[in-house]
Amino acid sequence: xxxxxxxxxxxxxxxxxxxxxxxxxxxxxxxxxxxxxxxxxxxxxxxxxxxxxxxxxxxxxxxxxxxxxxxxxxxxxxxxxxxxxxxxxxxxxxxxxxxxxxxxxxxxxxxxxxxxxxxxxxxxxxxxxxxxxxxxxxxxxxxxxx
Amino acid sequence: xxxxxxxxxxxxxxxxxxxxxxxxxxxxxxxxxxxxxxxxxxxxxxxxxxxxxxxxxxxxxxxxxxxxxxxxxxxxxxxxxxxxxxxxxxxxxxxxxxxxxxxxxxxxxxxxxxxxxxxxxxxxxxxxxxxxxxxxxxxxxxxxxx
DNA sequence: CTATAACATAGAGTTGACTCCAAGTCAACA
DNA sequence: TGTTGACTTGGAGTCAACTCTATGTTATAG
Lengths: 146, 146
Known about the structure:
- 2 copies of one chain form a homodimer.
- Chain A is mainly α.
- Chain A has a single domain (3-121), classed as Multidrug-efflux Transporter Regulator, Chain: A, Domain 2 (Orthogonal Bundle).
- The first copy, chain A, has 7 helices and no strands.
- Chain A has helices at 3-10, 14-22, 41-55, 60-72, 77-118, 125-128, 137-144.
- In chain A, helix 4 runs antiparallel to helix 5 (77-118).
- The radius of gyration of chain A is 25 Å and the shape is elongated.
- At the A-B interface, helix 3, helix 5 and helix 6 of A face helix 3 and helix 5 of B.
- Chain A binds a DNA duplex through residues 2-4, 13-16, 18-19, 23, 32, 34-37, 54, 59-61.
């Protein structure tokens, strides 16, 4: 399989695939006599793994570490597991942060929807329109209006 | 309030605050005769808003647009609402992506935990250890072993 | 009055993950 | 055999969001 075919299959730019090989996320791919890449089954498996783990947000340096360990064999299973669980923790934390972001946005949107109805902001954003914990003026206004 | 005090209060680097002002995320801050920043209540409100929305993942260019609109007044409430809801949609999509990433990691970790018990990988990761949809060899092996 | 700390600016450097470019080589077909 | 088109490489460029550096000014404590 040529690089173009592989990239079409995985819907990934050609440059990216070469870059992954350059930095060791994909081990050296089989070549033709002429020096062009000719992906075999095994090469494709490494490509799949790289795409999978990058898609799970693995940074490239950790990923090339993971690949290095994978090539070393079964003695590194524990270390690879560690990398995976570390990443899982990170993802969980990122998810929590997004949830916080979402609730801030929800609050702010709710505020603006109310403002739209009034035709004017009930609390001028130039003065303060932040629902961030450190910014309490909006909450104060809301408390006062209750 | 000096820049240092503000930064200590919000737990943010001094350079970042100056940078925010430079790119217009924070409108020009009140200065002393000597030209040094002396944050007033209103300045602090803009700082709060910037930190809040950056924390919600707003990119700086959208944020400076948001600030520009905020300064323009109530006639821009609709536009600001659009920016906020757009960002909310992005955050929702990002959250979904993280959920997919998490399930991939869970699968991969489960696989490695099994491998650790066996003392060897049941399916050599060098050959293929990816649970990505496009990679079915692991699933095949599992089906075969049932 | 002076030493020192904190401040100011413009602009350069950093980071991660690509993405593009130039200049050359290989492959397929008429 | 020639001419496309796809491939090769090393290295430069890009992007966002800072972060740092150099050089100079202001404020404050002794």
